[in-house]
């Protein structure tokens, strides 16, 4: 009897007797004989807890993590400081081992936390409504494109080439299968080319998608793109970074209709890529097109303030084949993490994190250029990430850094063949001056 | 006591629960940096660390959860979530890995993920597995795109229809629609199985595939599965397996052996990863060998010299479906679970899950109306109270169960059963737990006869009772907007 299973042999006998069967196998007679497994699965014998820990520890130790590497890599996943408190709160059984709050009476904890999460996302973006979260920023961008296509009844999306290549790849997968065309807007100096965007915009375009800070870290002229969208009665979809929003204009300020982003930087570990969390916020007009779970405030039969899943008529379990999204779960625990993170850091703390990312990334760029190992590139103002061209080759630089315990920048050549040997460096508030100086020293 | 403060109501300017080292490089003047800066006020809560901890701790206590009590929510497999799995997933050697770091610096995690792919393939009888999908519905979507690509590559361009039984989970038809298919819904037999005549009538050279949950959403094994598979294949379609109910059959039979071509699993159900209040989940997809070229990007492979790496140069792939590769922390927990149970443990888990469901069925069958009078698999569906005269509905029973300290079953699903109540006890509940739960259910049935009026206002013991959902939807308040 396995330690996770509490049914004894005596129990089994009593239960089978009550059911009127003489063996457990009799409960499986509905499975046609020809497909009943005759042998054990080819999976090793079960193990004890100490054995498991040993195996997993060995496996973890075969990796060199950012605990030991000094991380200057971003490109869609960020090494920000995670307050110790978060792990303790998020690991609480009550949050961890509950499911979707279908029964509001015994799920107020999860429901209220999501309500607070939605409130924070609305405040960060300035937009009217948010939902309980989505899988990640890439799928959130796809969902935003669906909203735009539905709202405008148009079948074409313009997306900047300065949008994270992984987001664009997921977007292509989602749109091509929904018979929506995508067209890319060209780059100029690591930013989206406004003239190219204007030239490609017309009354067939459902939405223009621009990211700011973009994949290269560049802060885009969002207002200008938003106006191009408006002029063509298309929606403007902004992909934004939640930490940068502490200092940069909100999507509402520049007239975005939909904002999406990656909330991993808000207290969620990098976790080798997942789980992360995508957020989405929309203007009032698009509330009923929002995908996924939404939590709303109401009162109970005694007039007490409380929270419920609401506007469920949009959702797959009601609309089934007429649904415009199949989203069922959300990233509840990651949303809780982001909520706790924002509660701990507060407005001042988030601004401080954003300010330090800015100061330190500018300092790092200046110092890296001083090593004379890089050529400067023309890049407008940036946040947290910037591009440099490695004179001795990107691979060589990163190998050298790795040998010195430093995780180097992202090599842009695979996604942008024209940027051969260009590295995208990321500097968060976690990096100290000393660490940045060491990075430069290694490359001098 | 009902704790009802919002974090925003604890906020006061000047408070903070956070400190990082002072900035040790020169200050950039932000206004020089960007033409404009944020204009609107940043209204994040300002609270001390202690207040923050107390707030979220108080909130948490208002959740029913697997650790505190029985949670027989059907189709959701609310089994015990082993704590050691949390510990190992949180090892810094995993959680602090950057997804884009070079493969030679993360062979450990890549090997783990590769081995998990192999284990899941073995358990399901499939040839290849991708761990990329973030949840069950995301797995469905991925699997359907693979089916679509398969037909496209064969230039079989008329296959625009996906058949879905009316007993299916709501995500099935929704996923098919989002993947660009036309959905054909077929009626099920009264016992929730596939109606072969309906199926035959729906099959044609326009059908791309059939989506099926087996055991079905009524908790019954589809006895005609081989015949169904043969019919769909003969018509040129593929068979998709919704793995929501996989907890019934581990080590007993495999979807791959039943004739399914594409499957998804819910690691947060069958493989014990915690549900987290609604996610993150994980929905790996398995395929037969003739479909491996279409799996999403990236694919994780093992080279001849035992080196693990991602490859993206796969022109026939459906493309990327998510950032990076899967919800790795969830995948680690599932892998730890499989290692811990082993082949025998997995089989035992399914056997006891089925035994528990059948035992619960026997305990309740006189007072609640069985949807189908047959041996069930891992879950059992009732059509409300046996006595239909009291006027007490399934919703009433569910709300009353809360007063007895239990999470209600899944209610009003499957939609083909009136007043449906779907119980899934899982293998991690003891006989005593089931006996006590059944006693509460019988007591409720008696209350329905004797004091039906008490149901109207149930629950009485929960922090809140019967929230006004109509008002919530009519006038949505979806964020805090000040005192």
How do the strands and helices of this protein lay out in sequence?
The complex is a heterodimer of chains A (444) and B (483).
Chain A: H1 9-19, H2 49-61, E1 70-71, H3 84-90, H4 93-96, H5 108-125, E2 129-130, H6 137-152, E3 156-160, H7 165-176, E4 181-185, E5 187-188, E6 191-192, H8 194-200, E7 207-212, H9 222-231, E8 235-240, E9 258-262, E10 278-282, E11 295-299, E12 305-309, H10 316-319, H11 332-370, E13 374-375, E14 385-390, H12 394-403, E15 406-407, E16 410-411, E17 422-426, H13 433-443
Parallel strand pairs in A: 1-15, 3-4, 3-7, 7-8, 8-9
Antiparallel strand pairs in A: 2-10, 5-6, 9-10, 11-12, 13-14, 14-17, 16-17
Helix pairs in contact in A: 3-11, 5-11, 6-7, 11-13
Chain B: H1 30-33, H2 49-60, H3 83-89, H4 92-95, H5 107-124, E1 128-130, H6 136-153, E2 161-165, H7 171-178, E3 182-186, H8 196-202, E4 207-213, H9 225-234, E5 238-243, H10 255-258, E6 262-265, E7 285-287, E8 299-302, E9 308-311, H11 328-364, E10 368-370, E11 380-385, H12 394-403, E12 410-411, E13 420-423, H13 431-450, H14 469-474
Parallel strand pairs in B: 2-3, 2-4, 4-5, 5-6
Antiparallel strand pairs in B: 1-7, 6-7, 8-9, 10-11, 11-13, 12-13
Walk me through the structure.
The complex is a heterodimer of chains A (444) and B (483). With 444 residues, chain A is α/β, with parallel strands linked by helices. Chain A is built from 13 helices and 17 strands. In chain A, the strands form 5 sheets. A 7-stranded mixed β-sheet of chain A has the order 2-10-9-8-7-3-4, with helices on both faces. In chain A, strands 13-14-17-16 form a 4-stranded antiparallel β-sheet. In chain A, strands 1-15 form a two-stranded parallel ribbon. In chain A, a hairpin with a 5-residue loop joins strand 11 (295-299) and strand 12. Chain A is globular. The mean pLDDT of chain A is 96. Chain B folds into 3 domains: 1-62, no CATH class; 83-340, Type I PLP-dependent aspartate aminotransferase-like (Major domain) (Aspartate Aminotransferase, domain 2), CATH 3.40.640.10; 345-472, Alpha-Beta Complex (Aspartate Aminotransferase, domain 1). Chain B is 34% helix and 12% strand. Chain B contains 14 helices and 13 strands. Chain B has helices spanning 30-33, 49-60, 83-89, 92-95, 107-124, 136-153, 171-178, 196-202, 225-234, 255-258, 328-364, 394-403, 431-450, 469-474; strands at 128-130, 161-165, 182-186, 207-213, 238-243, 262-265, 285-287, 299-302, 308-311, 368-370, 380-385, 410-411, 420-423. Chain B has a 7-stranded mixed β-sheet with strand order 1-7-6-5-4-2-3, sandwiched between helices. Chain B has a 4-stranded antiparallel β-sheet with strand order 10-11-13-12, with helices on one face. In chain B, strands 8-9 form a two-stranded antiparallel ribbon. In chain B, strand 12 (410-411) and strand 13 (420-423) form a beta hairpin. The relative contact order of chain B is 0.13. The chains are: A alpha/beta (444), B alpha/beta (483). Chains A and B meet through helix 1, helix 2, helix 3, helix 4 and helix 5 of A and helix 2, helix 3, helix 4, helix 5 and helix 6 of B.
């Amino acid at each position: 009897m396995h330690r996770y299973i509490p049914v004894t042999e005596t129990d089994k006998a009593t239960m089978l007797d009550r059911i009127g069967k003489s063996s457990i196998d009799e409960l499986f007679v509905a499975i046609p004989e020809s497909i009943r497994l005759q042998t054990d699965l080819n999976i090793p014998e079960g193990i004890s807890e100490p054995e498991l820990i040993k195996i997993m520890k060995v496996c973890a130790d075969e990796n060199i993590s950012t605990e030991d590497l000094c991380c200057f890599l971003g490109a869609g996943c960020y090494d920000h400081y995670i307050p110790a408190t978060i792990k303790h709160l998020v690991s609480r059984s009550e949050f961890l081992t509950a499911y979707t709050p279908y029964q509001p009476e015994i799920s107020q904890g999860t429901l209220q936390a999501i309500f607070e999460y939605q409130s924070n996302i609305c405040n960060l973006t300035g937009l009217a409504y948010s939902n309980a979260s989505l899988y990640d920023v890439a799928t959130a961008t796809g969902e935003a494109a669906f909203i735009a296509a539905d709202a405008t009844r148009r079948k074409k999306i313009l997306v900047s080439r300065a949008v994270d290549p992984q987001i664009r790849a997921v977007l292509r997968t989602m749109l091509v299968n929904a018979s929506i065309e995508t067209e890319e807007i060209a780059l100029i100096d690591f930013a989206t080319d406004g003239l190219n965007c204007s030239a490609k915009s017309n009354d067939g375009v459902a939405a223009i998608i621009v990211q700011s800070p973009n994949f290269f870290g560049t802060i885009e002229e969002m207002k200008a793109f938003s106006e191009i969208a408006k002029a063509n009665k298309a929606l403007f979809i902004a992909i934004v970074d939640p930490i940068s929003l502490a200092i940069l204009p909100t999507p509402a300020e520049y007239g975005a209709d939909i904002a999406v982003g990656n909330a991993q930087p808000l207290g969620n570990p990098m976790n080798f890529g997942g789980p992360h969390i995508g957020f989405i916020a929309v203007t009032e007009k698009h509330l009923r097109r929002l995908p996924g779970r939404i939590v709303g405030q109401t009162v109970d039969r005694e007039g007490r303030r409380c929270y419920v899943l609401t506007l469920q008529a949009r959702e797959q379990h009601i609309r089934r084949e007429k649904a415009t999204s199949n989203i069922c779960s959300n990233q509840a625990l990651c949303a809780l993490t982001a909520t706790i993170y924002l509660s701990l850091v507060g407005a001042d703390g988030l601004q401080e994190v954003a300010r330090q990312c800015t100061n330190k990334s500018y300092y790092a760029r200046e110092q890296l250029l001083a090593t004379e190992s890089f050529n400067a590139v023309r890049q407008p103002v940036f946040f947290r990430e910037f591009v440099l061209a490695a004179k001795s080759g990107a691979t060589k630089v990163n190998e050298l850094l790795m040998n010195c315990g430093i995780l180097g920048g992202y090599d842009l050549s695979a996604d942008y063949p024209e940027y051969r040997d260009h590295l995208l460096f990321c500097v968060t508030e976690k990096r100290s001056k000393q660490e940045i100086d060491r990075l430069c020293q290694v490359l001098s | 006591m009902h704790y009802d403060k919002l974090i925003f109501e604890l906020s006061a300017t000047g408070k903070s629960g956070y400190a990082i080292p002072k900035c040790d490089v020169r200050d950039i003047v932000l206004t020089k940096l960007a033409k404009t800066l944020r204009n609107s006020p940043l209204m994040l809560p300002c609270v001390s660390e202690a207040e923050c901890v107390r707030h979220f701790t108080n909130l948490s206590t208002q959740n029913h959860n697997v650790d505190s009590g029985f949670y027989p929510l059907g189709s959701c497999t609310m089994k015990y979530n082993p704590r050691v799995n949390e510990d190992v997933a949180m090892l810094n050697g995993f959680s602090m890995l950057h997804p884009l770091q070079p493969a030679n610096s993360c062979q450990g995690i890549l090997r783990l993920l590769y081995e998990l792919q192999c284990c899941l393939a073995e358990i399901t009888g499939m040839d290849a597995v991708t761990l990329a999908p973030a949840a069950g519905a995301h797995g469905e979507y991925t699997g359907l795109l693979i089916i679509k690509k398969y037909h496209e590559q064969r230039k079989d361009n008329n296959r625009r229809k996906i058949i879905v039984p009316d007993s299916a989970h709501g995500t099935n038809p929704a996923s098919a629609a989002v993947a660009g298919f036309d959905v054909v819904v077929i009626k099920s037999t009264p016992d929730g199985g596939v109606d072969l005549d309906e199926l035959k009538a729906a099959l044609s050279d326009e059908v791309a595939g059939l989506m099926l949950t087996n055991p079905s959403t009524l908790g019954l094994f589809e006895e005609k599965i081989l015949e169904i598979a043969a019919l769909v294949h003969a018509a040129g379609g593929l068979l998709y397996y919704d793995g929501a109910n996989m907890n019934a059959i581990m080590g007993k039979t495999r979807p791959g052996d039943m004739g399914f071509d594409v499957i998804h699993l819910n690691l947060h159900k069958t493989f014990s990863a915690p549900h987290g209040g609604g996610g993150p989940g994980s929905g790996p997809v398995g395929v037969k060998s003739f479909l491996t070229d279409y799996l999403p990007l990236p694919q994780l492979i093992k080279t001849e010299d035992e080196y693990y790496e991602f490859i993206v140069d796969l022109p026939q792939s459906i493309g990327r479906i998510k950032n990076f590769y899967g919800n790795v922390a969830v995948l680690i927990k599932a892998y730890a679970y499989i290692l811990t149970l082993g082949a025998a443990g997995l089989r035992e888990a399914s056997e006891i899950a089925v035994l528990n469901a059948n035992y619960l069925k026997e305990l309740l069958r006189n007072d609640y109306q069985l949807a189908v009078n047959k041996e069930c698999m891992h879950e059992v569906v009732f059509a409300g109270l046996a006595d239909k005269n009291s006027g007490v509905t399934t919703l009433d029973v569910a709300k009353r169960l809360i007063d007895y300290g239990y999470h209600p079953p899944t209610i009003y699903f499957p939609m083909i059963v009136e007043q449906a109540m779907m119980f899934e006890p899982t293998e991690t509940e003891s006989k005593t737990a089931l006996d006590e739960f059944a006693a509460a259910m019988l007591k409720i049935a008696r209350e329905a006869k004797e004091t039906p009026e008490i149901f109207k206002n149930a629950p009485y013991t929960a922090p809140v009772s019967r929230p006004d959902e109509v008002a919530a939807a009519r006038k949505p308040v979806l964020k805090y907007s000040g005192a």
